Structure to design on (62 residues):
């Protein structure tokens, strides 16, 4: 899960994919070139695909 912050309406938007076009669901602004964050850890994500760490907490569920 990835997250971007809209510079226009200042709302976060979420996507399961970091590739392709990213349009703000609130105001319709194109956020494709905006900074990308990991929605879980809130760390900045580079443009590398498939290499973000999985949080330890969510690996086990009882
Ligand atoms: Zn927006």
């Amino acid at each position: 899960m990835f997250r971007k912050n809209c510079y226009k309406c200042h709302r976060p938007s979420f996507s399961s994919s970091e590739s392709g076009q990213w349009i703000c669901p609130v105001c319709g602004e194109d956020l494709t070139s905006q900074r990308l964050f990991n929605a879980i850890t809130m760390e900045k994500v580079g443009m590398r695909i498939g290499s973000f760490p999985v949080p330890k907490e969510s690996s086990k569920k009882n």
